[in-house]
Amino acid sequence: MVIRLTAIMFVPPGRRPTSAMAWLLLIFFLPVPGVLFFLLIGNPRLPKKRREVQAEVNEFLRDANEHLELGTLLPNPPAWFEPIVRMNRELGALPLSGDNGARLISGYQDSIDAMTAEIRQAKRYVHVEFYILKSDAATDDFFRALEEAIERGVAVRVLMDHWANLSKPLHRQTKERLTQMGADWRFLLPLQPLSRKFQRPDLRNHRKLVVIDGEVAFIGSQNLTDPSYNVPKNIRRGLQWVDLMVRLDGPVVRSIDAVFLTDYYSETGEIPDGIDLSEEIPGSDDFDCQVVPSGPGFENENNLQLFLSLLYAAHDQAIMVSPYFVPDEALLRAVAAACSRGVRVDLFVSETSDQALVYHAQRSYYEDLLRMGVRIWMYEEPYILHTKSLTIDDETAVIGSSNMDMRSFGLNFEVSLLVRGAEFVEQVRAVEDDYRSRSRELTLEEWRRQPLRSRALDNLARLTSALQ
Known about the structure:
Largest sheet: 16 strands, mixed
Oligomer: single chain
CATH topology of the largest domain: Endonuclease, Chain A
Helix content: 40-55%
Number of domains: 3
Strand content: 15-25%
Radius of gyration: 22 Å
CATH class of the largest domain: Alpha Beta
Number of helices: 19
């Protein structure tokens, strides 16, 4: 009873009502295991020392804003566009820049090959940051390009999430190869208690990006590893990941580099010499781009605020692609409002999944979404549709690392790219059309035939998803 009464005092403050209720239910039904679990993962904040570093990082981003308003912006933006850009900046994003080139790469190996080719042209430095990074058959040439770059005197800096890589095959081989080539590599959010590096274990850096000489960058959803992730159970099931990356050139590359530098500073306390973010590099096209970092180091859920604003701004259509779609109340209301306004809303998800709990939590929303009028497209097995994107109307898109789930909104460090440009949205639409051709549409009639035991499991998973 003491545990239950104490939980009422300490659990709800600073937490979403649904999250607070889920924690309280767990603690009320299982007081001792519940409170131990809460002490382990119940605090979504970074440790005090890490928060102090993050405050310095945020100040660095604010200072960088003064030097990154580069390029000429497209004329005649929609009335709602500039307020969203301004909101992003207030939340901690970088400025909107113009005159950028942006090209989608939807082939999994194609994107690795494109990054490899650019690294072979590097003259000064290469910055690599991935949630999962492995030296395997699919990435061997990428690693050889890094080795060749170092031999030419190019500085190679590599960041990768600690826990995500520790739990996947080829971890030791990857570390050894990076060390042997002479790369400056670091773990992101390391769990090393003996070195006094520890935080909530499931806080993760989920970003995926590459920057070459401050002139070319890649950003998107794809990890740097084999499309099966080399996991035996994935190989047995024949699972293959499907992703989307963007190759960028022009002023926006400086903003992506700024995100890398802040993560590098968070782990090292240093900013590398010889990098001038104010140097303007011309782009190959005229797209307007804004980089939006998000994560537990920011006071607001920057990525969620961006998604909400765009859904409320949509006039004709909104197409969402997310492998893990577990919305909070605000996102669900935004989707419902769009449908009520007559906006066509499509959601692409996978027919199967590699994460059972998230998969069932996601399924628990299907009936609500179908009743709203959302068209749900289920990408064919055995592929995992891992792309994360949102397009609205004809000239605005978001591509990045962020899922539309509560974990990506509150617990993961993510990075999203907002792009304005009709030609770019046409590229995304072509990819969406390809996804649609490989998917089947889920209907409300089909969903109503789900067995009771399946619905019960989905609803239980939905409750656990709120334990943030």
